[in-house]
Amino acid sequence: MHGGNLIREARRRAGLTQFELAERLGTTQSAIARIERGGTEPSYERVVAALRACGFDLLPRLLPADDADWSVASTNLAVDHDTRVRRHQAALRFAEAGRRAVVDARA
């Protein structure tokens, strides 16, 4: 995820306009718009400052690389369209059953 995307997400979650965030950071609305649009790439420090101005913090951490999504995607490319759709529908049914089970367990 790019810094501009993080800033936009934090700003929206905080219920701020670009102008309001710009005021908190001592910059202009157009500068915030450029960052969010990807016209400029903010430094790490700038991203942290913007997130804090929105009431959030950034906690970076290292995780082992996980290519499981690519493994699933490449496996799905090897099957025909109908099989992919059936697999997707089965996964949705499984997820819906899990959600129902959680709701039932809470009741």
Keywords:
mainly alpha, 70% helix, 0% strand, 2 domains, 434 Repressor (Amino-terminal Domain)
Characterization of the model:
The longest helix is centred in the C-terminal third of the chain and has 26 residues, at 81-106. The protein starts with a helix and ends with a helix. The protein is mostly helical. Helix 1 (3-14) crosses helix 3 (29-37) and helix 1 packs parallel to helix 4. The radius of gyration is 21 Å and the shape is elongated. The chain has two domains: 3-53, lambda repressor-like DNA-binding domains (434 Repressor (Amino-terminal Domain), Orthogonal Bundle), CATH 1.10.260; 68-106. The chain has six helices and no strands.
Structural class: mainly alpha
Amount of helix: over 70%
Any idea what the radius of gyration is?
A: 21 Å
DSSP summary, beta strand count: 0
Query: Strand-and-helix sequence, N→C?
Result: HHHHHH
- Quickly count the domains: 2
Number of helices: 6
- Low-pLDDT stretches are none
Biggest sheet details: none
CATH fold call of the largest domain: 434 Repressor (Amino-terminal Domain)
Mean pLDDT: 91
CATH domain class name of the largest domain: Mainly Alpha
Overall shape = elongated
What is the CATH-assigned architecture of the largest domain? Orthogonal Bundle
**DSSP strand content:** under 5%
